[in-house]
Design brief:
Elements lengths: L11 H14 L7 E7 L5 E7 L2 E3 L2 E7 L3 H8 L2 E8 L5 E11 L2 H8 L4 H9 L9 H10 L11 E15 L7 E7 L5 E6 L2
Antiparallel strand pairs: 1-2, 1-5, 3-4, 4-7, 5-6, 6-7, 7-8, 8-9
Length: 197
């Protein structure tokens, strides 16, 4: 089905949720996976894959160790870009850019408690992005961890990207792709513009 001005939602969060569900229903593996790009204070970028864990009118939420490389970069330069890319049910991508804030402790706790116990234990013993001498070091720390279901460490939690630009792209015949950009207006509505492919 063609993407046009009459078929897209006036709200980018609704549109993204619809495309996520369509990708999931079509069998796209991990449709919630997104490439997250951050940058140091002096603008040196880095990217990695993370998982979208919540989406609402305030933005997109993912979780990580705040002492990790991305956590340190977000502390120094609280802006990020995220990219979703799917081949099912059709070739699509969504780009999101905006300011990033930490989510409330209560929300991080609630998500932490949904994680499998093994994932919680690994997050407790792993200081993400820190240099270690061997995997055996982590395995030994896991053996020493007495708590089978440990509480969330204070260094681990969620971030919310508050979009300033959201762009939807769908592949078209002969490279005549469909691109729509959403940007917020002062009225809290979203301005939608079609972009040349």
């Amino acid at each position: 089905m063609a993407v046009d001005e009459t078929s897209i939602s006036p709200d980018p969060f609704t549109q993204l949720s619809q495309w996520l569900e369509l990708a999931r229903a079509a069998g796209e593996p991990l449709p919630e996976a997104m490439a997250l790009s951050t940058a140091t204070r002096d603008g040196r970028p880095s990217s990695r894959m993370v998982l979208l864990r919540d989406i609402d009118h305030r933005g997109l939420v993912f979780y990580t160790d705040r002492g990790s490389e991305k956590g340190r970069e977000l502390k120094d330069n609280p802006f990020a870009a995220a990219l979703f890319h799917w081949h099912l049910p059709t070739h699509r991508q969504v780009r999101v850019t905006g300011a990033v804030t930490e989510v409330e402790d209560e929300q991080s706790d609630a998500y932490w408690n949904t994680r499998p116990p093994g994932s919680r234990r690994s997050a407790v013993v792993s200081q993400q992005s820190a240099v270690i001498s061997s995997k055996a070091v982590l395995e030994a720390l896991l053996e020493e961890l007495a708590d089978a279901s440990p509480p969330r460490p204070s260094r681990w939690g969620g971030y919310r990207i508050r979009p300033e630009v959201v762009e939807f792209w769908e592949e078209g015949a002969d490279r005549l792709h469909d691109r729509f950009r959403y940007q917020p207006e002062e009225s809290r509505e979203w301005r939608i513009e079609r972009l040349s492919p």
